[in-house]
Inverse folding.
């Protein structure tokens, strides 16, 4: 497990609160996993899921006791990003603000580098 700095990846207080709420409802630890997979309309897509544990190659960011974990391969594609939770007329979703993305799709779930 790697130590994280703010420049690696960050979890906003809004996202941390939402993860804590989901974890409580599901009876799971407050650990959100962000990974990147090939696909989507822009080449890569973000994938979110609740994790049961931290893996050996994970980088961990923590906000208000909630952990965001990212595997080493995905971290190369999201380094410097911030994970937020938005609740607006378009719906509720986790959103990645990725400064390394060259372009993205309209829905914000896929990107290219």
């Amino acid at each position: 497990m790697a130590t994280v700095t703010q420049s690696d990846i960050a979890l906003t207080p809004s996202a941390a609160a939402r993860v804590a709420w989901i974890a409580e409802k599901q009876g799971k630890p407050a650990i959100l996993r962000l990974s990147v997979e090939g696909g989507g309309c822009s080449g890569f897509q973000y994938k979110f899921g609740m994790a049961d544990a931290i893996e050996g190659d994970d980088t961990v960011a923590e906000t208000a006791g909630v952990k965001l974990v990212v595997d080493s391969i995905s971290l190369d594609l999201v380094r410097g990003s911030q994970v937020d939770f938005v609740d607006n007329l378009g719906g509720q979703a986790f959103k990645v603000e990725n400064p390394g993305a060259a372009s993205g799709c309209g829905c914000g779930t896929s990107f290219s580098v």
User: Anything to note?
Assistant: The mean pLDDT is 85. Residues 45 and 54 are 21 Å apart (CA to CA). The radius of gyration is 13 Å. The chain has one domain: 2-107.
